[in-house]
């Protein structure tokens, strides 16, 4: 008998599940993630706000980024200015480090001998936005333990952590999270150089660098880029750079050209159901439900609205 | 002032560190990971065993996999037979799912109407090897907590978990780990279809599928492959398949053509120093040491021996 490799992972089909390998098989209809989503009310979904949606247009397609204004208001404001003034147009993806990050910005950024692209009316200096006051945030806490933070969960679709002792909250470095590159000084990022996590969540970066948002569509256009052969995965030759066609806020793009997306609300009942269905997989492929889910393993469903 | 994006991550340069943002800066020479490795004695390194090293030769280069005989003896034996009998030659990488896995094997595996490639003298049926007895294993435990298992650590270079209550141990789904695809039945894998983790560690798969080894070099040849557009990231058209030139045990390759690699012993003092240096980053870029490291964030250093 040969194995069928299709069966594991995000099975979209209906499954007749056993509870666990140790218990007797109880045939029970376990809804798949897709079935849970299909049964969700429209009110459990939200539409991306064009004022805080950034497009990164590459030759291969569009990456859609939701900006986290509640956590990094100064960076998001600067990034918005840079996008509106077409700062990134003609700049490049300059780094792809395996199991870590892809980064884009001005290729001459680190070369003091070269003329940098002017940043227009964007601010040359911003405060570090590593964490903020937790009070006032709609923090949906996961019950699961986390090695890096006292509490983890979601705030309006973003993975986040919270420390009740200090009343602080911060965004976390999960796959797809976007941050602002900086120099040694904590407040040396200005939003011109952005990176996205494309590997095992580097949570040691949490509260060490300003996260500004999350890729909600098109991450695979960045994650497959050839790894750079220079130190830290930087490309060594200009011909390796991947050109940025343009980068714009959705609000600056004609409505007909915007990417229409809906995101499952992380404070919805449907989301809670999804989390539990992933914490303990009960379809017939899984023999042992894990009883745990890591913050960065929680899926954040996105869909294209029916037209 | 503009940001320099080079500064974060695996800094190889010497750093003058502050202890944390909350404490006064104490200029202290903090050795980098590279300096720790450079200072290590030769006895802290081991050479790959040609009997349990599998090469996966792609048109773009060679992926080197160390097989985990101690955890999956039956699968490793079958994989060895398949490699020696050239089973994978001319087969393909058939799946690349973003933030999850890349998989290779017989493209016709899931199509009952097609003739499958014969498996020669390999066994058509193997036991599931999800876990084993912990007693007798040289388990080097991390002091860090883990949400998925009572204890985590390393066994001879492989990330692993242990449950002292049941005296069991198992390999864990960290980035680069290689497993044997299976159908719904726990014992339906035969080692012909293999996958490698290329995203956030899917630890919910632990003890649900047989892990057989780990990529120790060349993961970037797999992780950049275009994502498949079919369900679960399977390629939909034969022209999307990436051909496997050959797959061989190192022992079956002339010595001059083998990839010479040394791996840092995970039971060495140098490894313990590396883990602590990554658990609490004290170079001048990091403002807040994390005080924690996740099992799947621990680097497993590999080097090419000086000739």
Automatic annotation (TrEMBL), chains A, B:
Keyword Signal attributed: yes
Instruction: Tell me where the signal peptide lies.
Output: 1-21
Q: What is its EC number?
A: 5.2.1.8
Molecular functions per Gene Ontology? isomerase activity
- Domain of life per record: Bacteria
**What keywords are assigned to this protein?**
Isomerase, Rotamase, Signal
Keyword Signal tagged: yes
| Annotated ranges, domain PPIase cyclophilin-type | 59-249
- Protein name (Swiss-Prot/TrEMBL): peptidylprolyl isomerase
Q: Which organism is it from?
A: Noviluteimonas caseinilytica
């Amino acid at each position: 008998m040969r194995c069928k490799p299709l069966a594991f992972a995000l099975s979209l089909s209906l499954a007749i599940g056993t509870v666990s390998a140790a218990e007797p098989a109880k045939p029970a209809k376990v809804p798949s993630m897709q079935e849970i989503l299909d049964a969700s009310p429209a009110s459990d979904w939200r539409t991306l706000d064009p004022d805080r949606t950034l497009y990164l247009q590459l030759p291969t397609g569009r990456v859609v980024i939701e900006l986290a204004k509640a956590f990094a208001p100064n960076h998001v404001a600067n990034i918005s200015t840079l996008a509106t003034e077409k700062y990134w147009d003609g700049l490049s993806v300059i780094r792809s480090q395996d199991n870590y990050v892809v980064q884009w910005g001005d290729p001459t950024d680190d070369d003091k001998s070269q003329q940098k692209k002017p940043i227009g009316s964007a601010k040359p200096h911003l405060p570090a936005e590593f964490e903020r006051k937790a009070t006032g945030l709609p923090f949906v806490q996961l019950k699961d333990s986390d090695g890096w933070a006292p509490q983890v969960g979601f705030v309006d679709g973003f993975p986040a952590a919270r420390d009740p002792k200090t009343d602080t909250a911060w965004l976390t470095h999960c796959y797809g999270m976007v941050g602002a590159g900086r120099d040694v000084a904590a407040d040396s990022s200005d939003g011109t150089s952005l990176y996205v996590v494309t590997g095992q969540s580097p949570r040691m970066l949490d509260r060490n660098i300003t996260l500004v948002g999350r890729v909600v569509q098109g991450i695979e256009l960045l994650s497959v880029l050839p790894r750079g052969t220079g130190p830290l995965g930087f490309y060594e030759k200009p011909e390796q750079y991947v050109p940025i066609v343009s980068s714009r806020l959705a609000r600056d793009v004609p409505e007909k050209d915007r990417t229409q997306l809906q995101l499952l609300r992380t404070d919805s009942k449907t989301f809670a159901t999804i989390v539990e269905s992933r914490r303990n997989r009960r379809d017939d492929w899984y023999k042992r439900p894990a009883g745990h889910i890591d913050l960065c393993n929680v899926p954040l469903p996105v869909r294209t609205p029916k037209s």
